[in-house]
Design a protein that fits this description.
CATH class of the largest domain: Alpha Beta
Number of helices: 8
CATH topology of the largest domain: FAD/NAD(P)-binding domain
Strand order of the largest sheet: 6-3-2-10-23
Helix content: 10-25%
Shape: elongated
Number of domains: 2
CATH architecture of the largest domain: 3-Layer(bba) Sandwich
Structural class: alpha/beta
Distance between the termini: 37 Å
CATH superfamily of the largest domain: FAD/NAD(P)-binding domain
Radius of gyration: 23 Å
Largest sheet: 5 strands, parallel
Strand content: 25-35%
Length: 356
Amino acid sequence: MSEHDDDLTLESGEVLTADQIKDITVVGAGPAGLFTVFSAGVQEANCRVIDSMPQVGGQLTALYPEKVIYDVPGFPKVTAKELVDRLHEQAQQFKPEIHLNETVVDVQRLKNRILAVTTSAGNVFYSRSVVIAAGIGAFTPRVPDEDLFAKHGEDKGVYTAVRDKSVFAGKDVVILGGGDSAVDWVMGLGEAAKSLHVVHRRNEFRAAGHSVSVMRDMAEKGTVNIITPYNFKTMDVDGNGHVTSVTVENKDGEELNLKCDRLLCLLGFKNDLGPIVKWDLRFEDSAIKVEADMQTNIPGVFAVGDIASYPQKIKLILTGFADASIAVQNCIPYIRPGKKASHVFTSVRGLPAGSK
């Protein structure tokens, strides 16, 4: 980011109008970004959202719309798609300006406290503040053998995400992984699959304790076969290249061959923050360092959700919601010097004018 000497008159001579300058521009339309829009609307701050994906929802929409989420307050369980739909509906009450299929490539801070936000489409948007809610950035699934997996995709029965549970129904499924996603999908596919094996390189799983307990109960009932500590070795395919079995081995070289026509690899992601890393932000473990008010080292630029780093940070959807609320509370005095954000209790006062 860099400062310029110009004011609200651009080099072309164009004078920016109030309508062109939003109070808050949100970079990222995942759960934290959508809740930032709602929180801004409650404070009567107008908003713009920019996301590189063709639809809102971030990872929830792109990778696992049918995944059941259990740790969102007020929902004993909710699918990722349902949650995104609710968040989108909630945000839309305030009619935000939404730009999809555009990546923010640069943000420049003007001396008059206005931020110029440039996108990959060549658009330049102006804002009084920016909230970065970009999640983990662009994400590439981790696989045990990149060359092998590059040759076999979903049309060959090899998956790195579940977008439609029905394709696993009645199939022999092998899941690779030991984190929350792997264990969640053991629970999600256990009743639908013909057979289900979960393979993890350690005896202990890294998922939520309750979920692991449920999975082990399923194993006792014969719904799932837990295979640990084993690593993926190779896959066998038929004449059309479709997976037919998977071979796994332990540290002693002992091998198991598992019948499989649906291989689901859930080993996490390699993330790429893209152009953000070129901005003058402070980073820590591939995340942006923020203060208690969620502001970065650049005045007027805040970060929330998985991309924000602070002491004792827990990367959960619900903490992203809290981050969003805190960021907006602190955006208000920045964009409106001398004015504090009001603590709005919508259950008592109702939503501000302008919402539905």
